[in-house]
Amino acid sequence: MPRPVQVTYEVFPDAPAMALAAATRFAHKIEQAVASRGIARLAISGGSTPQAMFKILADPSHPFAATIPWDKLQLFWVDERCVPPSHPDSNYGVCRDLLLSKVGIPAANVFRMEGELDPEEAASRYEATIRNALKLEGAESPHFDMIELGMGPDGHTASLFPHTDAINELGRICVANYVPEKDTWRITLTSPVINQGAEVVFEIAGEEKTDVLAKVLTGPRDVDRLPSQLIRPSNGKLLLLLDEVAAAKLPAASVLNDGQPRVGTLEI
C-alpha cells in the first residue's frame, strides 16, 4: 500500500475567487523560492482552469505583474498537446498570449514542450531540457518548487489519461502518450516527477468535476480508471484549490477565519 498523504482542500465561493487564490499562491511560491536560493522553478498545466489565473497575473490592476521577480522564474510545462505553438490548442501558446507576452520573464527562462515535433522526439528533447536546466546527474529526479495541476471529468491529470501507457511509466521524466479516446498524442511529465514537487496543487472548478473528484479522493484506488489518484507527493502533502461546486461531495470543510476559504482535510 502507498504511504498516506494528507490532503488539504480550500473551498472558494466560485471559480474567479479560486483563480485569484491560485495567482496569489503562484506569486508567493516564486517569491519564497527566490528568497531561499535565488531562483524559482514552476511547472504549469494547460486546460481552461489556469487561463483565469494567467489573466490575473498579467492584469496591471493586480500587483502580481509588477511585483513578481519574473527574471528569476524558470517556467516549465506539465503537459502539451501535439500541435505547433501557434495553434489555439497549444498549452504554451495560450500561456504566451495571456501571460508571457505581458510580463518581464526572459525568453531563456521559458521551457516549452515542442508539440510540433514527433511526440517521442518531443518527449525525449524535453527530458533533456529539464536535465540540462536543472543540472541533473544520472538518474536524479527533478524537483520543482511548485507543480500546478488540473483534473479532467474523466479523472485524468497532466496528460495521464485513463488506461494509457504513461500511467505505468516510472523511469522517465517525460513521455509521449497516445490517448485512444481522443485519437491523439500528448506529451506529459510522469507521475514520479510530479510527486517530487516541493508543492503540488490541483486547481479544480465546475460541476462536471464534482463526482469524479469525490471518487478520486474518497473512492477505491483504481489508477487505470482515475489517473489523478497517482498524485501522491513524496512529502506527504497535497493541496487542492476548489470552487464550491467541485467540492460539493467532499467531507464538509469548515471556516477557519472570516473572509478566508473553507478548509477541509482528509487522508488518502
Descriptive overview:
The chain is of the alpha/beta class. It has a single domain, classed as Rossmann fold (3-Layer(aba) Sandwich). The chain has seven helices and twelve strands. Strands 5-3-2-6-9-10-1-12-11 form a nine-stranded mixed β-sheet. A three-stranded antiparallel β-sheet has the order 4-8-7. β9, α7 and β10 form a beta-alpha-beta unit. α1 crosses α2. The longest helix has 23 residues. The chain is globular and about 45 Å long. The termini are close together. Belongs to the glucosamine/galactosamine-6-phosphate isomerase family. 6-phosphogluconolactonase subfamily. Pfam families: Glucosamine_iso.
Reconstruct the topology from this structure.
Blueprint: E1 6-12, H1 15-37, E2 40-44, H2 49-58, H3 64-67, E3 73-77, E4 79-81, H4 91-98, E5 110-111, H5 119-134, E6 146-149, E7 174-179, E8 184-189, H6 191-194, E9 200-204, H7 210-218, E10 237-243, E11 254-255, E12 262-267
Parallel strand pairs: 1-10, 2-3, 2-6, 3-5, 6-9, 9-10
Antiparallel strand pairs: 1-12, 4-8, 7-8, 11-12
Family: Belongs to the glucosamine/galactosamine-6-phosphate isomerase family. 6-phosphogluconolactonase subfamily.
Catalytic activity: 6-phospho-D-glucono-1,5-lactone + H2O = 6-phospho-D-gluconate + H(+)
Organism: Bryocella elongata
Task: For this entry, give a set of tags.
three-stranded antiparallel beta sheet; 268 residues; 28% helix; 12 strands; Rossmann fold; alpha/beta; Glc/Gal-6P_isomerase; 6-phosphogluconolactonase activity; 6PGL; 6-phosphogluconolactonase; nine-stranded mixed beta sheet; single chain
